[in-house]
Structures are given as C-alpha cells and as structure tokens.
Write a structure and sequence with these properties.
It is a single chain. This protein is an alpha+beta fold. It folds into two domains: 1-23 and 71-115, no CATH class; 26-68, YefM-like fold (3-Layer(aba) Sandwich). It has five helices and three strands, in the order H-E-H-H-E-E-H-H. It has helices spanning 5-17, 35-40, 42-52, 71-95, 102-114; strands spanning 32-34, 56-60, 63-68. Strands 1-2-3 form a three-stranded mixed beta sheet. The chain is elongated.
Length: 115
C-alpha cells in the first residue's frame, strides 16, 4: 500500500481515538524486585502493576530477568509499535517517491474507517 504523509497523520489520529494508553514511568525504588520476593507475593505484585499502571522489573542475582506488565499497557505498547512500524514504512515509501496525493489518501482512510 502506498501512503502519503497526511495519511500517516490520519492513522495516528485514528489510533489515538481508539484508546492508546500511556504507560506510567518506572519508579526504581518501587518497581524493581528480586525474584524471591516476587515468588512470595505474586498476587500483591499483580495488584500493584494493575493499580499503578507501571511495569515491575524482576531481578535474579541483581540482574534484570523479566518484566511484569498489565495487559492494557502491553496491548497499548503493541499498538504503538505497530503504528511506529507503519510510520517508518510510510516514510520510506515517500522517500522512494511512492506517495499519493492528499485527496486520494483521505478517501482511502475514510473507506477504511467506515468499513
């Protein structure tokens, strides 16, 4: 599919309207826990992640080994990655001269949104 710069903006606006969630920043003093502590209080850590909307970094022997992330934040992160990949592909297409004019792009977006 050939995409214009304005079409990229329409896609960004559409993805924003469907509810991209902003994940909260990690708090080093609260959101990094050793595996042994995580094992002992799994339910409490799931509750913390859900309430704070922040990821929890799990460590083993002082090194990061995993991240606990709420499902909404994970899904939002996946949508954001997809959007950024679409933008990157679009920019490459435009720089290769494969763009389309604004009116055609607008019509394509309208059709996709209504369908």
């Amino acid at each position: 599919m050939i995409i214009s710069q304005r079409m990229i903006l329409y896609c960004i606006m559409y993805k924003t309207r469907i509810g991209v969630i902003n994940m909260q920043r990690l708090r080093v003093d609260q959101d990094i826990r050793p595996l042994s502590e995580f094992r002992a209080g799994v339910a409490a850590f799931f509750k913390q992640v859900q309430e704070t909307k922040r990821p929890l970094v799990i460590t083993q022997h002082g090194k990061s080994v995993g991240v606990l992330l709420g499902i909404q934040e994970y899904e939002a992160m996946q949508k954001t990655i997809e959007l950024l990949q679409d933008v990157q592909k679009s920019v490459a297409q435009i720089s290769e001269g494969k763009g389309i004019d604004h009116n055609q792009a607008r019509e394509m977006v309208s059709i996709r949104l209504s369908g």
